[in-house]
Amino acid sequence: MISLAGLVTALTAAAAIVIAAPTTNNPTDGILEARQSSPPPPVGVHDGYFYEFWSDLGGNPVSANYSLSPGGGFGVEWDTFPGLTFTFGKGWSGANHNYHKSIEYEANLTLEEGGALFGVHGFALNPLVEYWIADNYSPVFENWVAMLPRQDKGEVTTSSGVYRLYLEVRTGFGYPQGVFRLYWAVRQTKRSSGIINTGEIFSAWASQDMGLNRHEQMLLSVEGWIESRGSAQVEMLGPPGGN
Ligand SMILES: *[C@@H]1O[C@H](CO)[C@@H](O)[C@H](O)[C@H]1NC(C)=O
Ligand SMILES: *[C@@H]1O[C@H](CO)[C@@H](O)[C@H](O)[C@H]1NC(C)=O
Prior knowledge:
Blueprint: H1 5-12, H2 32-36, E1 43-46, E2 49-55, E3 63-68, E4 74-79, E5 86-93, E6 102-125, E7 129-137, H3 139-147, E8 151-158, E9 161-171, E10 179-187, E11 193-197, H4 198-206, E12 214-238
Parallel strand pairs: 7-10
Antiparallel strand pairs: 1-2, 2-5, 3-4, 4-12, 5-12, 6-7, 6-11, 6-12, 8-9, 9-10
């Protein structure tokens, strides 16, 4: 189910087919900016933050309307029936950032139907690793994680909360390298606001032989898959983009 966002898009030069239009929010709520450039392109830099909309191209287009609000903020409404995956997120991309960040957010999330999650989604290279720090998720996601062929690396208590760590090794998915590792940190109590100290999660992973070498991308993201329907309005209170 997991999208391999920008990296795969870049590596395979696949063009995302996007059905994106700005949401019909009240123009006074910060969406006005996005409405003026409707629809925003699927990848870009907005107000100092890298952003990306990605969907797998498995057959049917995904319906996801996203909008960009000031700073690291964004909104997405989606309906992935009959079952495509999408991700949308805002954050940092490229080698010249310090990826140990305290990401403070406030969000209004509706993640009830189908597979859906919200949190910090990233990639590192050499070796290729995809990771998720999941702060909120749907019931389907919980069942899915429980059935996942993965190694349970136990629970860790951080200043961001208590997370359960998993290592998943995947093959295929059109990846040039064939095999890649996916690191999970799943917050044991879901939340819709708070601060994620990414460096603490990176350290917790590293202590379980789950290191990250060259950070490449890290976005505060939403993902939907398996007949997912929902919405997210996200405000990023810090840190500033661009560094
Ligand atoms: C996206 O916007 C279009 C046009 O306003 C609308 O018809 C569609 O229902 C929206 N999709 C979602 C998932 O909100
Ligand atoms: C969430 O909803 C509340 C109530 O409508 C609103 O005041 C707040 O600004 C919203 N937050 C975001 C991040 O959209």
